[in-house]
Specification:
227 residues; alpha/beta; six-stranded mixed β-sheet; 7 helices; disordered N terminus; disordered C terminus
């Protein structure tokens, strides 16, 4: 019985050596062969943001630090530091400017809400083709101003802007702390204020034109609602 166990152990050991390359005269070539390493993939350079055209012909432009001089000196320098826009089907921009405490995510949230309102709703009575709305906003120089803080009178720029104001503390970003906690101190007023903006700026001009001095849109909107 002992001889049988010993013979079995020797046979198993020999099998293990062969399987692991421990025996046979043809293994020298394998042992001397080299392993070729695959060249690591080089990271690509980051791509520049590009303009995207939506289904109804509105062009979504990226966020930039270059603010058009045509908006006036109030929107330059220390007052506002970023700009984005939608290009209406007629080729004219619908402007959005932001102050320094507004995050890029809040800018995108505001622009996406605007896109939501300007997107065609096929089969509806009045919304199946909204090109005319976007074109009218652009013709009237529609401007959304994203302002630091809250609508409490403490932001000195808020009383000067000639455009629809929307404040930092009123813009909830999906997935953010305010959104997840549903913090009512930071209720999301984006849909409300931007709807006012679309409604009024697609009907009447509100920005200053050459030789015409107009009041900020906030004052103008309140007057329209009382008339």
């Amino acid at each position: 019985m002992k001889k049988l166990i010993l013979a079995s152990s020797i046979a198993l050991t020999s099998l293990t050596l062969v399987a692991c390359g421990g025996g046979g005269g043809n293994n020298n070539a394998d042992n001397n062969s080299t392993i070729k390493l695959i060249n690591p993939i080089k990271p690509s350079k980051p791509t520049k943001p590009t303009m995207v055209t939506t289904a109804n012909g509105i062009k979504d432009n990226p966020i930039t630090k270059k603010i058009p001089k045509s908006l006036g000196s109030l929107y330059q320098g220390n007052n506002f530091n970023r700009y984005t826009s939608l290009t209406a089907p007629n080729g004219k921009p619908i402007h959005i400017v932001a102050q320094n405490k507004i995050t890029d995510e809040q800018i995108l949230k505001a622009k996406n809400v605007l896109l939501h309102y300007l997107t065609d709703y096929k089969g509806s009575q009045f919304g199946s083709d909204k090109k005319a709305v976007a074109n009218k906003m652009a013709d009237n120089g529609a401007l959304l101003t994203l302002l630091n803080g809250a609508d409490d009178g403490k932001n000195p720029v808020g009383a000067k802007v000639q455009g629809q104001p929307l404040y930092q503390n009123e813009i909830q970003v999906e997935g953010g702390k305010w959104y997840m906690a549903q913090n009512y101190e930071h209720r999301d007023a984006s849909y409300e204020e931007i709807l006012h903006w679309v409604h009024l700026s697609a009907r009447n001009p509100h920005r200053s034109k050459k030789g015409v001095k107009q009041k900020p849109m906030g004052t103008w909107c309140r007057k329209q609602s009382m008339d």
